[in-house]
Specification:
binds flavin-adenine dinucleotide; alpha/beta; binds iron/sulfur cluster; 945 residues; 45 helices
Length: 945
């Protein structure tokens, strides 16, 4: 079936203005940035929409559907946009369900939950985990994909082996039909009066029942014989239901890819979280052995059984992941202990015994510890975007990425594929859910090269034909048909069954507005390929969105890290058409830490801001650079702080400073709610004259303390704590001349000014073995100087400095000196750690936690979301106080949940932000302050004994 020609209004803004009139202005967007961000998902395609609707209720969904149907405008539902097939992009209206992201109900006795379609799988599992449950199917994109997409794609993942796919775990759905009416889709008994009522009310359901009854034989004949299938409509599941006297409606809608109706909620079955889990990596010398080992390993009832072939191991880097050079394939096996009776150690022994029969390159690596297990999974889960690092031109292209064959023939399939691609001279990664016979095949191609393009088309047809003909398999196990496989749905099932699919589609969507071009279409898979983007470094996987604090708050692609990559690298980008979004980034760098493809969106945004430096910030930072004058001004402010920092005066200041501060950003203000740090009347450098070295003076100590601005100017004890801790470790640090490390300056686009200060720092820090820092942002900025001076004469000096920068927690962890601490503490204080984004980006994550855990007076608790941004980000809490407070709300809840009395961190902006957000609910301290307290308690105990 070719999609009907749909009418698009001539004036493209008419759609958005019509929808605004119905839904309100905040829920509808059609500006350049929004349409650019929503033109992509994680597939190889690009289609720009006309308008985006961010629905917040069932009423919004129904109203949008009715409008689209009346006007004949294509309507594409969308959740996280991580599908690999182009099913969440479209030329009309995108209906984004991300803001519908709550768990509506959890029934612990009966193990089910009601959830909305915008909830991220990882967030759902975090919530369920607190009650001992989880959702079984686990797509590898679980950190970012959302329930609506999982339902519509019938997603599955490594643990499908045990828990099935989404279709096996759904009880009921609320579906908005194209009439705008709502259907409670569940498995009704055919004798249930409600079923009769439904059939009476909805003609498409009557059509469907008749179609199933009349074609039962054909459907039975065409049923895929492999263990997984997401191709076509699931008439097979419906036919099974009818045979058991049930009209199992979720079976129709799960996997329908937004082409039959839109979901507003789902009732899902839950499974208990395993009591313990074992993960093993097994490296095989010979591929043939893998095929043989799989049935034997399946006897252990693993919850997951995954494979990565030799090419995949080469592409992701064997050395980096500790994979032997001679491994022909690696298996990842997971075993769960559910009942108290399961002995995982005995299971591990049985597995090792099985593996001994084969030619392994080394003993299996077995991990029980959650952190180690996560490491083993990490490479596997991020495989697809990681392949983007391999070559600047040849990119992983998903066009035959999801085939399924009988599990026992997976070795044969891998051998065939390796030979096929070797014949084409195309590098390819083959990995996937071997226990289900589901292989992900990702060739690396430059689709802008004619030769590679032809190889793609040839591979598409040959491989799909072979999987269907020789292996009797399926072309789609879990990713959906989307735009990429529609061309082959007919080949997979034959004309007769395909005609039934067309009848189902026409019956539920007679106007053809629901996600046209998806699943049922004759369009070739090469239509709408995004050739420009496929030459860029971003995989559009959305892993960064999952950690972007701005996306977390706005749930809109134009306010997200992935969206910003699209916008700032688009050929039509200009600062003026995108200022709103370019200025919204916090520069927290969480995206950079998360990105498997090595893209640094925050840096791209800084580059764009550097083209338009903020004038007001320039005035402030130039004053800041005149150190003597600036410090005199600060001391004056410190003196009168008891007056100006009173609530009433602060409200007045908020009002009076607005016109001036607005120069920083439209949203900027000095909110009276902001808990100001106490300014020091005597700066750190005044308090430690004996440690000061002047410009040009040679180093007196092997260690310099780069205190940065906050520790110098704030009277919060952080600088004193760092110096005291260093002294306890036998180091008398120098405090060389220093300027602002440059983070806030660069954030406002003043790169030249940031470099000016950085040059001073490069010279004054040159003679030291170690440059110790306390501030997270200074740590990262000093380590990032090589990027700041890329290709410039200072780059070598910047690289040398970057290697010597050591955060105080790293210094303490590495120090051979172990100062005395109190042996016992009568009471312990509950301490949680907030891992500042810039310190994470600098790679310092373990040391602060390990140190806190070792402090005698501390009961360390790992709080939820410890690694998420708190929203302070330098001066962001001045630039956009409202958004920063929406961001910190999540952190506040996490701290409350942890029961912590003290939150430890390393960043002055985080400290201000946490104090503002917590309003005294917990104390906020720098890690160095807690170490100092522990050493002082040790001193007191020594004096007493
Ligand atoms: C790195 C990576 C790894 C992946 N690993 C896996 C894996 O292991 N297993 C797997 O199955 N998939 C995997 N995927 C593919 C993808 O993540 C999943 O299919 C995921 O479930 C899609 O969810 P989403 O929220 O991103 O949906 P989207 O991409 O937004 O949408 C997917 C489909 O759902 C429809 N849809 C969304 N919301 C609704 C709604 N409310 N009502 C009706 N239709 C709706 C859309 O129209 C579209 O057709 C992976 C993707 C990436 C990038
Ligand atoms: S920037 Fe990185 S994490 Fe973000 S979408 Fe692109 S590849 Fe994925
Ligand atoms: S730096 Fe932070 S706010 Fe900016 S795009 Fe990255 S994650 Fe989002």
């Amino acid at each position: 079936m070719t999609a009907p020609t749909l009418i698009l209004p001539e004036r493209s803004h008419a759609i958005a203005s019509d929808l605004r009139a119905v839904l309100g202005v905040d829920k509808v967007k059609d500006d350049y940035s929004t349409l650019t961000a929503y033109a992509v998902d994680a597939s190889i395609y690009r289609i720009a929409p006309r308008a985006v609707v961010l629905v917040e209720s069932e009423g919004d969904i129904a109203a949008t559907v009715r409008y689209a149907v009346q006007r004949g405008i294509p309507l594409t539902p969308r959740a996280a946009g991580t599908n690999l097939t182009g099913s969440a992009i479209g030329s009309g209206i995108i209906l984004d369900v991300s803001r519908l992201n709550r768990v509506l109900e959890l029934n612990r006795e009966e193990s089910w939950a009601r959830v909305q379609p915008g909830i991220v799988l990882a967030e759902l599992n975090k919530h369920l985990g607190r009650h001992g449950f989880m959702f079984g199917p686990d797509p590898s994109s679980g950190d970012m994909c959302k329930f609506g997409g999982m339902l519509a794609n019938n997603s599955s993942g490594p643990h499908t082996l045990r828990y099935g796919a989404v279709k096996d775990n759904v009880e009921a759905l609320r579906v908005c039909l194209q009439s705008g009416e709502w259907l409670n889709a569940k498995a009704y008994g055919l004798d249930d009066p409600n079923c009769a009522d439904l059939l009476k009310a909805h003609k498409p359901l009557r059509d469907l029942q008749l179609l199933l009854q009349e074609n039962a034989t054909l459907i039975a004949q065409k049923r895929p014989t492999v263990s997984k299938n997401s191709c076509g409509y699931n008439l097979f599941g419906l036919a099974d239901g009818l045979a058991r006297g049930r009209f199992d409606l979720p079976k129709l809608f799960v996997g329908s890819e937004g082409t039959l109706g839109l979901f507003s909620e789902a009732t899902i079955r839950l499974v208990e979280k395993p009591r313990a889990t074992l993960t093993a990596l097994i490296h095989f010398h010979h591929l043939e052995d893998v095929g043989d080992a799989v049935p034997k390993l399946l006897e252990l009832s693993p919850s997951a059984l995954e494979v990565m072939d030799a090419n995949t191991l080469n592409l992701i880097g064997r050395a980096k992941h500790g994979i032997p050079a001679d491994a022909a394939a690696t298996l990842l096996v997971e075993l769960d202990a559910d009942g108290a009776g399961t002995d995982l150690c005995a299971q591990a022994d049985r597995m090792t015994e099985i593996c001994r029969r084969y030619r392994l390159t080394s003993d299996p690596v077995i991990a029980f510890d959650p952190e180690q297990r996560e490491q083993l999974w990490k490479a596997r889960k991020a495989l697809y975007p990681t392949l983007y690092r391999f070559d600047p031109k040849k990119k992983p292209i998903n066009f035959v990425d999801d085939v399924v064959v009988p599990a026992e023939r997976i070795g044969e399939l891998i051998r065939y594929l390796e030979e096929f691609f070797a014949g084409q001279r195309v590098p390819v990664a083959i990995f996937g859910h071997i226990g289900n016979g589901n292989a992900h095949i990702i060739p690396l191609l430059d689709v802008n090269d004619q030769d590679d393009f032809q190889k793609m088309v040839q591979g598409y047809h040959e491989i799909h034909q072979t999987v269907l003909g020789r292996f009797g398999g399926s072309i789609c196990g879990e990713h959906g048909d989307g735009r990429v496989r529609t061309e082959y749905v007919k080949t997979m099932f034959g004309q007769e069954l395909y005609d039934l699919f067309v009848r189902v589609k026409q019956s539920f969507d007679p106007s053809g507005v629901l996600n046209p071009g998806i699943k049922i279409s004759d369009r070739p898979f090469t239509d709408n390929i995004d050739y420009v983007r496929l030459s860029k470094p971003c995989a559009t996987c959305a892993k960064c969105n999952a950690v972007c604090p701005v996306y977390d708050v706005f749930q809109s692609e134009d306010m997200s890290s992935r969206g910003w990559f699209e916008i700032v690298t688009d050929k039509n980008y200009s600062y003026l058409n995108s200022k709103r979004v370019v200025e919204a980034c916090l520069n927290c760098k969480s995206c950079r830490t998360a990105c498997p493809a090595g893209v640094d969106v925050s840096q791209l945004i800084l580059d764009r801001r550097a083209e338009h430096p903020n004038k007001m910030a320039g005035v402030i930072f130039r004053f800041h650079a005149q150190t003597a004058k600036f410090e005199r001004f600060l001391k004056l402010l410190a003196r009168y702080q008891p007056i100006w920092d009173r609530p009433l005066v602060r409200r007045l200041l908020d009002y009076l400073t607005k016109p001036f501060i607005r120069g920083l950003a439209e949203t900027a203000r000095l909110s009276a709610q902001l808990v100001m740090p106490r300014l020091a009347r005597r700066h750190l450098r005044d308090r430690y004259p004996e440690l000061i070295t002047q410009a040009g003076q040679t180093a007196r100590s092997p260690v310099a303390y780069f205190h940065g601005c906050a520790a110098n100017y704030f009277d919060d004890g952080v600088g004193d704590a760092v110096i005291s801790v260093l002294r306890k470790h036998g180091v008398e640090p120098d405090l060389p001349t220093q300027r602002c490390s440059g983070t806030p300056i660069e954030t406002y686009g003043h790169r030249a000014l940031a470099k000016e200060g950085a040059r001073v720092n490069l010279v004054s820090m040159a003679g030291y073995d170690k440059v110790v820092t306390g501030c997270a942002s200074c740590t990262l900025m000093l380590k990032d100087y090589p990027t700041l001076f890329a290709g410039e004469p200072e780059q070598a000096a910047a690289q040398a400095l970057a290697k010597r920068v050591t955060h105080i927690s790293e210094f303490v962890a590495q120090s051979p000196v172990k100062p005395a601490m109190a042996s016992q503490q009568p009471t312990k204080c509950k301490v949680a750690y907030h891992s500042s984004c810039h310190l994470r980006a600098a790679g310092v994550t373990k040391e602060p936690r390990a140190i806190l855990q070792g402090l005698p007076g501390v009961e360390y608790v790992e709080m939820p979301d410890a690694d998420r941004c708190a929203g302070g980000a330098g001066t962001y809490l001045v630039k956009d106080f409202e958004t920063s407070q929406r961001i910190v709300e999540r952190k506040r809840r996490a701290i409350e949940q942890s029961g912590a009395e003290v939150v430890a961190t390393s960043c002055p902006a985080c400290m201000i932000q946490l104090r503002t957000g917590l309003q005294g609910a917990a104390e906020v301290k720098h890690v160095a302050q807690l170490i100092q307290e522990a050493y002082e308690a040790g001193d007191r105990q020594t004096r007493q004994t």
